[in-house]
Amino acid sequence: MVNDLLEEQSARIWKQLGLIIPCDVGAVCSHYNIDLIRRPLGDEVSAFYLTLPSGRTEIVVNSLDSPRRRQFSIAHELGHHIIGSARPQMRLLMREAGADGDAEERYASQFAACLLMPEPLVVEMYNFLEDDPDWRLSVLSDKFYVSRPAMLIRLKQLGLPVVNQWYVTEITLQSVAESTASENRLNRLLIPRKHS
């Protein structure tokens, strides 16, 4: 139920801002009056969301991370903003689901997936690429400007089959939202299978 609300919120943002692929997370930050700051944060932190005493909000993203990693991190932190200012219905559903800190992290990552890879657009492009299934994952990742593991997780969430030549072991949405080191580990999980 919360995931449906995150999908709806993402769709509203796309419609309000007239977004196109790939999602302009900077424009979304501007829409919510969030200052976007890029600075080196080291290896342990990808980004964080901060409300200043003045009431201004900032997303600080690690300038040392890859551009696609920064894209997901910014969208994830936007998820924290959306959840923090969520409609009472969403907050109630999260409370009923026992949403603790870990759950909020999962919801922020889910919001990031919805924002960066909106279901209708992913499904439309997925179907358009039906004649070229071998390149589907690569093309979708490039078009939506996300990592392959992030796109693979999204396709799995949407119930869209992934080409058989790729073997993927236990990737979770939370893994994608972790550090750059985690992203590198996830990329190694994509193991091309030999054709029979």
Walkthrough of the structure:
Strand 2 (47-51) and strand 3 form a beta hairpin. The chain is 56% helix and 11% strand. With 196 residues, the chain is mostly helical. The longest helix has 18 residues, at 67-84. Helix 3 packs across helix 5 and helix 7 (136-144) packs across helix 8.
User: Roughly how many Å apart are the termini?
Assistant: 42 Å
- Strand percentage lies at 5-15%
- Rg of Cα set: 17 Å
Mean pLDDT equals 79
Structural class, from helix and strand content? mainly alpha
Main β-sheet description:
3 strands, mixed
Count of distinct strands: 5
Overall 3D form: globular
Query: What spatial order of strands do you see in the largest sheet?
Result: 1-3-2
**Count of alpha/pi helices:** 10
Contiguous runs where pLDDT drops below 50 for at least 5 residues:
164-196
- The residue fraction in helices comes out at 55-70%
Give the SSE order as H and E letters: HHEEEHHHHHHEHHE
Quick structural summary:
With 196 residues, the chain is mostly helical. The chain has helices spanning 2-17, 25-31, 67-84, 88-96, 101-116, 119-128, 136-144, 148-157, 173-176, 180-189; strands spanning 34-39, 47-51, 57-62, 166-167, 191-192. The protein has ten helices and five strands; from the N terminus they run ααβββααααααβααβ.
